[in-house]
Amino acid sequence: MTKKLFITFLMVSWLAVGSMGVSAQAMTEVQPVVAPAPLLPLISSTDTSTIAEVDLQPGTKSPHVRKIQETLKAMGYLPADLETTEYLGPKTKDAIMNFQRAQGISPTGFFGQATRAALRKNFRGSGEVIDRNVDIVCMKTEVEKRENALLSAYDTHAGKLKIARETRKTDFLAAWSIQDPKARHTALKTAWEKYRQSVKTAANEWNISRKTTWTQFAQQAKSCKATAAETQDLEKVEVAE
């Protein structure tokens, strides 16, 4: 090997080692832990920026009505469990009139420029509204009851899964004690089917318990004067479970 080729080889080797060192450092770098932002005050994610500049009369049917209903629900002027529609009916009209009275606007039920401006003024930042009417102590009690019920239901679910696995283990060992290949194959197949059915049953029971608990919580939260800010946004987390 010539001196020039030898020097070139050393340079390439040095670059490769340096690159590997940088990659290793990047892989082992510890990411800083960021503390989660506090949840209080409780807020709704309703965004009034999507409310169109359209005047709406009572009795009107329009896709814009749905967003108005969502906003009024978030503010407590409509029931949290009310299904939104495109119809500005009596309930929505009454909610608009109550909001207008609270804002010093003539309570006509007509959703015009003044009402839109007042609605947006009551929201802050990117469309988040503070729920000032909720009973914090009451909600804390209901949330604790909900979480305890979910923990209990999950413990039951986990226990059934453990039993299913233990039973599968016993069935597998019994199957592999069978000398006849055909009988052994049948026993193993039966063991798997039995296990899958046990897991499926446990999952169905867990889902029923979970949904029942959340339904009960939503009903009890109403007695705490909780609006959509709690029951439909911040506290609607069962989808993530």
Please, how many domains?
A: 2
Task: Work out the number of β strands.
Answer: 2
The biggest beta sheet is recorded as: 2 strands, antiparallel
- SSE series: HEHHHEHHH
Amino- and carboxy-terminal Cα gap:
65 Å
The share of residues in extended strands comes to under 5%
Sequence of strands across the biggest β-sheet = 1-2
> What is the radius of gyration computed over CA atoms, rounded to a whole number of angstroms?
31 Å
Number of helices: 7
Structure description:
This protein has 241 residues and is mainly alpha-helical. The protein has two domains: 43-130, PGBD-like superfamily/PGBD (Muramoyl-pentapeptide Carboxypeptidase, domain 1, Orthogonal Bundle); 136-224. It is 62% helix and 2% strand. The chain has seven helices and two strands. The protein has a two-stranded antiparallel ribbon with strand order 1-2. It is elongated. The termini are far apart. Residues 19-45 and 124-129 have low confidence and may be disordered.
